[in-house]
Amino acid sequence: MSFTTPPRPLDVTALFPELAPLARKATRLHPRPGSPTMRDSSVGGPLLWPADEPWPHCDGDHVWDKWTPALSAEDIRQSRRPQAAAEERHGRPQPEGPIPMLPVAQLYGRDVPLPAPPGADLLQVLWCPFDHPTHPRTALFWRSAAEVTDVLAAPPEPSAVQLVTYLPEPCVLAPEQVTEYPHPMELSQDLQRQLAEVSRWEAAGPAWNSAYAIAPHEFYRNELAYASGWKVGGWSTWGLTDPVPRPCPECGTEALPLLTIASTEWDGGSESWAPQEEHTNPTPLPPGYPTANFTMIDIASGYNLQLHACPASPDHPQVELIQ
Q: What is the value of pTM for the model shown?
């Protein structure tokens, strides 16, 4: 399986040379439903977890909404299979004690460039299936895959999941590198003014979409700046808020984008980032699911959960950001 991001409408650095030194590589993950193993990079798949290492649990306070009956992970999986719909069990008692975390992503360095600490080549991301306070709390683990020789065969699962969209559908990945540039609000005032000048864009000829003449910076943001969907690295996306500092909680160094956990691979404003293969052979989705919601995850009603890592030390706590 491979996916190809369509070429961008134009070379933005030819129009705005000041953007060239700001270019960053991002790796689009392109998750699609499949049957990954613990030896594969995946979203929502089994983890290569050492048998002698405790499985992470969340021992925080969990708000129990009695009006939204929670289901077990297996109930949710069965409900996604039309031939074996699970019976919803209303009135499930609130789980007591620490709650086992759910696997969200497993990334091998052989598949995805990672800012791993020395000796590590595997990143594992899990989260609590309850909000803290507005999105699941995440946990990151770096390890050497070669050192995991005795694997945990049956990881624990939470007895209940707050929302069905907090349980990722197992997905295989098709990593692809692309080039990204900063969100307009992260650029200098001078460069923002240049992006707003329609005449600069008109110099690109037919590659310029004149429908953006009222707001040229939107053309830059939607079509040229950064890819949509699940990805590693690149630039932070903004929209829910203006850019804010993301200092490392431990040392204060500005944290950099590590992993974007996306609700959808693209939407109405980012359709140009849909892979070419999806136009000719669309990936099927169950009825009722949003377009391009292949992982069946939904963060805060359609937003992304971005994890930022400290460049001084990947072992420092991650910074979580909803955008």
A: 0.92
